[in-house]
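Hi, here's the filled form for the chain we discussed.

Project: internal
Contact: R.S.
Residues: 887
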Amino acid sequence: MRDLPVVLWLVAALVVALAHTWIPAPRWLLIHLTLLGAVTHSILVWSRWFTDTLLRTSTDRTLQNRRLSLLDLGVLTVLVGVVGGWWPVTLVGGAAVLAAVACHGASLQQALRSSLAPRFGIVVRFYLAAAALLPVGIVIGVLLARTQTDPWHERLLVAHAAVNLLGWIGFTVTGTLITLWPTMLRTRMADDAERVAARVLPVMLLGTAVTLAGALAGLPRVSAVGLATYLAGLLLLAPGFVRVARQRPPSTFPAVSALGALCWLAGSLVALVVAFATTESWAVAGGRFTWFTPFLAAGFGAQILLGALSYLIPVALGGGPRSVAAATNVLGRAGIFRATVLNGSLLACVLPVPPAVRVACSGLALLVLASFLPLLALAIRSSLAVRRTPADPVAGRGQGTGTVAPTPVTGPPPGTALALGLVTVLVATVGGIVADGELAAAGPSAAAGVVATGETTVVEVEAHDMRFTPATIEVPAGDRLVIDLTNTDASEVHDLVLDDGTDSGRLAPGESARVEVAVVGRDVAGWCSVIGHRQMGMTLRIVAVGATAETGESTEPGGTEPGGTKDNAGPGAGAHHGPAGAGGSAGAGGSTGQPAPLDPHAVPGTGFVARDPVLPPLTGETVHRHTFHIRDAQVEVAPGVTQTLWTYDGTAPGPVLHGRVGDTFVVTLVNDGTIGHSIDFHAGSLAPDRPMRTIAPGARLTYRFTARRAGIWMYHCSTMPMAAHIANGLFGAVVIEPDGLAPVDRSFLLVQSELYLGAEGGPVDIDKVNAEAPDLVVFNGYADQYDHDPLRVDVGERVRIWALDAGPNRSSAFHVVGGQFDTAYAEGDYLLRRGTGGSQTLGLLPSQGGFVELEFPEAGHYPFVSHVMVDAERGAHGVVEVTQPGR
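And the returned structure, exactly as it came back:
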């Protein structure tokens, strides 16, 4: 079955949607599994089928299967290459996809040439235009995987998406619906359809080309002109489509889905024209386009795919009109209801609704899309069952190929199904509002007993660079207040929370939301709840003009001053990282709930294994390539204590890099987290503006540096507030060995850091960070772990212990109880070399590192600690277990 790979791609997309928390780059995978996998495979199958049907040609099934196999293998290779960060693999996969599509286009061109005066040649020309555009999109996509620095990354991203969505998919869908739309409705095609289509094709081509040029040039308004031109081309077809629909209104799932998909395409184009035309900043325009992409993928791409397949697969299954009708009837079950729920849910997600509503409605949309898979299985079974059942002698007369016979209507009438679908979406929306309102109910009323005036004050507010603009809003007491909030930052996530519990929900770059206060009767305080943003001054004050003294004061949780607080972690904090820090964003909300249960006498469970403290050995590589995925992860940091950490590749500290002076490191950073993050390698010397910038969720960058000096170097997230990002797990070590470093028997690495525990299972407590009051000080991310699983060496072995103080705030005084260091190295130079001298402690400030060497004279248990003793008692403690050789 040629459509089986489509089912597999859709199943894979469903798995990613359900398990997105544990899968890297889930958004990217969802879009590409659906569009590059399922939709592209279907285009190769069905555009050829339509070509053969319209031109009365035939195709070599063996060659077609080879093209499809090459395509699917190429798509799979692209997915593996991009997610794994292996650009050569991505290049090979892209080349395979390009070759498959090029061969497909060549076969269509050959069919068109061999057909004598084809009546529907314009449809095939749409397919040829699409096949010519996809290779452009593929090349841009492969370059995009290689180019991680702005402004080119953002430009290529929009160019890639525009060419593939509007060109490859848009042209194919438009050309197909010229004939498929009236066929779905079982009515005649408009008389002027071919003539109009011939005028539309060059207009759409021009629009695509201008959009592409604007994207590559970084000119949003040029792209807006291109998008408007493309839309104008589509609108030329609209009168004919409407005339056909008036003859027989859409009432089946395939037809309603096709109509819904076209509405999403046209509506998205209108919104994008406005979004691009109203900004000169490509970062803002790119963010807006990125925000729309999932809706185009689901509302347009996925919906037209499932609608078309619901009509075409029964035809492909064959078996005569009875068999086709049976399969069509199954795939069309509850069609109006399903289409209404899908489109209503997606529309709700587009609107400025609370986060809980988006979760509920997106879940509904996913459920509707996923329902196609079991219905397809039932349709195939039904088709086969009908084939095995002898036909009624009269009803079966004339069985054969032809158009699909009308199928009996199942389920409620269309009007009832439409109403049920709308009610379902409404119930999900209300449920989300109620769930979201439980938090709002915890805050004091903003009305404060003031009588409503019936007037409304509307204010536009921008969230940008750790500030709300304007930061003060004056509202006549008793007015209703509407705040249209837009996140105009290029990479940070923000929100707005008011002290009455009203919450905008998290806004990605370019997103907007509406925050409403029914009656403003007192001063109201607002702030960004992303970790650290409020402390950096991201606060807002609503002043009730004319309120009485008794009702005019704002209140905030914890009794802080109206308008929020601002402490030492202001915009200038961490100024030595200026350009990187300037793009800061922080975590997914502060810790709430019960504090993490910290028991100093607790022990890990049975089978506990400490993080491997052995320094990874050097390899022969001189160019080290790595991909770091930033993930939010539930991590145990002490016995019975779990925190949500921000991690590089799921661990804190992150992966250890080990090399020599002169080695080059190429690190691809992929942000699979929920907020903006970054990375700063102290081991490299380069301008921080581009490689250390904050990247938004779903984005990636490539950081390339050459290690020119020896030492143990820290790397960390430099997004503001930096202390919070480091304290919550985004740090690690790079060891660059000095030339001529003597070999040793054992080499260990210990990274000291602090933990400021939030609620159990929650993220860092920013107030504790700012107060410099850690709950735990640990080696390699877990309190006292090497007490329970010691470092093991033999008597007389030479031992080197590399140490790094990752901070963010406290110094380290590394000491081995019962041992003496005969060699000490810190910050790129020796403090002590082997001889008669000795050292007892290696002192390190935050971000400093070095190593010590020693030999243990006899068997026993040698504790190692930070000799800042309160920190040793907080968890900076471990044991070296020394045994006689052979034991």
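Let me know if anything looks off before we file it.
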